[in-house]
UniProtKB/TrEMBL annotation:
Domain of life of the native organism: Bacteria
Leader peptide range in chain numbering: none
SUPFAM superfamilies according to UniProt: ALDH-like
Keyword flag NAD: yes
Keywords recorded for this protein, A-Z: NAD, Oxidoreductase
Name under which the protein is recorded: Aldehyde dehydrogenase
MF-aspect GO terms: oxidoreductase activity, acting on the aldehyde or oxo group of donors, NAD or NADP as acceptor
Family matches, as Pfam families: Aldedh
Statement: the UniProt record of this protein carries the keyword Oxidoreductase: yes
Record PROSITE patterns: ALDEHYDE_DEHYDR_CYS (PS00070), ALDEHYDE_DEHYDR_GLU (PS00687)
UniProt source species: Subsaximicrobium wynnwilliamsii
InterPro entries named in the record: Ald_DH/histidinol_DH, Ald_DH_C, Ald_DH_CS_CYS, Ald_DH_CS_GLU, Ald_DH_N, Aldehyde_DH_dom
Coiled-coil annotated spans: none
List of catalytic residues: E249
């Protein structure tokens, strides 16, 4: 059994209440370890450790903070294989994805913010004619909370804790209880890299108890959260009256808009990826595909043919394109949407069924599924499914597709396929999304603002936006 412990004040501890949660391997449906079901007392201990570490860490030079973060990055790279195997086992994603995407990006997050903090500058404003100069300090907040989801476990966990620590804060962090393993393994690397004890504290447990205790803690002054929109709304209700800073990265129902003048083969390959990467469990996946009528039938034939070639298999097989979904409950949720699609008179063009993998019959496998819908105004097009399921439908005009793309409660990302520059400019301006990709998908530059509008969240992560979130601006005005 692979048992996990809390990482508090630089050491590994059992939960005070000695209560545990089973940890499942999605590839075979078996329990393979236990994780702490931490209580408010554990969160308080983590908070106290963070509070004690803060005076020194907040005064640690930027060079030293940078050195430690880059060292963590190097250690992650040195342990790539072990971390990728752990991530794949915990989450069900193909090991190839964990090895080429998740763990390298986690390492990049530390390297990026290790470098970024040395370039982070504050502003000054000369009050001309008033004999005064203003300068703005960017001070760390103190103890901050970071709560992350299960779809990109270490990738998103480190996307929060790296900027928080770089900016001089101390952190109480909680990974998803569904995928806690790599966050647990990270603690050891932090010690090896020389991160002072108490700067990062990792408390495991359920959202409604452990997560809730972080959000409710009166002295944890900022919360950075990624996860479902309903949970984000709940966190906002708890945290807002306490005047906490909030960064909420929530769900998406992203349009993938394909015009007839696009580079067809590039579009086709990328659309398969943007639909089904990570079993479709990425908030940025293009789950609503709109295709210009002139190429709709051709696209439908070619897309379905390519999707049928995707191999659903055990995550450890090099040939696997689609691994297991993250949990039994999530598999059931996604299957429920396939049922809803049929009730709504959608046509299942391919997929729609569970897959049994020999030797792993209790794993959570589902065929990649393409549903042809008649209207954007159906549940399959309006609600986040977050699995290997996409819808397709044709459109006639730019105005029509823009209306449909925006006619959804979410506003995270949008992808546009066209070679028409003026159309690109018009549509990029009008699409209601925090991120627009044109002729590409999920091309990431960590300096760029990342986040959504509408029900997709509040605030931006990435680059200096993240460092601004994790600092308080204080203006000093000096009259001379
Ligand atoms: N980034 C995204 O867009 C993500 C979206 N989702 C969506 O959310 C749906 C539900 O997935 P869940 O695993 O239930 O996500 P969730 O939003 O409940 O979980 C995300 C994190 O929040 C924590 N959490 C839950 N309740 C909390 C609370 N009251 N206070 C503080 N922390 C809390 C969880 O323990 C986990 O660490 C998915 O089916 C999917 O549609 C899920 C994961 C990521
Ligand atoms: O920062 C990125 O590159 C990706 C972020 C993805 C999510 O926030 C998500 O899928 O939840």
């Amino acid at each position: 059994m692979a048992n996990i412990k809390n990482y508090i004040n630089g050491s590994f501890q059992n939960p005070i209440n000695n209560e545990w949660i089973d940890n499942y391997n999605p590839s075979n449906g078996e329990v393979y370890g236990q994780i702490p079901s931490s209580s408010q007392e554990d969160v308080e201990q983590a908070y106290q450790a963070a509070k004690s570490a803060f005076p020194k860490w907040s005064q640690t030079t930027l060079d030293e903070r940078s050195r430690i973060l880059i060292k963590i990055s190097e250690l992650l790279e040195a342990h790539l294989q072990a971390f990728a195997e752990a991530e794949s086992k915990d989450n069900g994603k193909p090991i190839s994805v964990a090895k080429s995407v998740d763990i390298p990006r986690a390492a990049s997050n530390f390297r990026f913010f290790g470098n970024a903090i040395t370039q982070f500058a504050s502003e000054s404003h000369e009050s001309i004619g008033q004999n005064a100069i203003n300068y703005t300090l960017r001070q760390p907040i103190g103890v901050v909370g970071c709560i992350s989801p299960w779809n990109l476990p270490l990738y998103l966990f480190t996307w929060k804790i790296a900027p928080a620590i770089a900016a001089g804060n101390c952190v109480v962090a909680k990974p998803s209880e569904i995928t806690p393993m790599t966050a647990f393994l990270l603690g050891d690397l932090c010690n090896k890299a020389g991160l002072p004890k108490g700067v990062l504290n990792i408390v495991h447990g359920l959202g409604g108890t452990t997560g809730q205790a972080i959000v409710e803690h009166p002295n944890i002054k900022a919360i950075s959260f990624t996860g479902g929109t309903a949970t984000g709304a709940h966190i906002a209700r708890v945290a807002a009256p306490m005047f906490k800073k909030l960064s909420l990265e929530l769900g998406g129902k992203n349009p993938n808009i394909i015009f007839a003048d696009c580079d067809y083969e590039d579009m086709l390959d990328t659309t398969v990826r943007s639909s089904f990467a990570n079993q479709g469990q990425i908030c940025l996946c293009g789950s609503r595909i709109f295709v210009e009528a002139a190429i709709y039938e051709q696209f439908k034939t070619d897309f379905v043919a390519k999707v049928k070639q995707l191999r659903v298999g055990h995550p450890s097989e090099a040939t696997t394109d689609i691994g297991a979904l993250v949990s039994k409950a999530h598999l059931e949720k996604v299957k429920q949407y396939i049922k809803i699609a049929k009730e709504e008179h959608g046509s299942i063009l391919c997929g729609g069924n569970e897959v049994t993998i020999e030797g792993f019959e209790s794993g959570y496998y589902l065929e990649p599924t393409v549903i042809e819908v008649q209207t954007n105004d159906c549940r399959v097009n309006q609600e986040e499914i977050f699995g290997p399921v996409v819808s397709i439908m044709p459109f006639e005009t730019e105005a029509d597709v823009l209306t449909m793309a925006n006619d959804v409660k979410y506003g995270l990302s949008a992808t546009l396929w066209t070679n028409d520059l003026k159309r690109t400019m018009r549509m990029s301006n009008q699409l209601q999304a925090g991120i627009v990709w044109v002729n590409t998908w999920m091309m990431r530059d960590l300096r760029t603002p990342f986040g959504g509008i509408k029900a997709s969240g509040v605030g931006r992560e990435g680059g200096f936006e993240a460092l601004r979130f994790f600092t308080e601006a204080k203006n000093v005005c000096i009259k001379y």
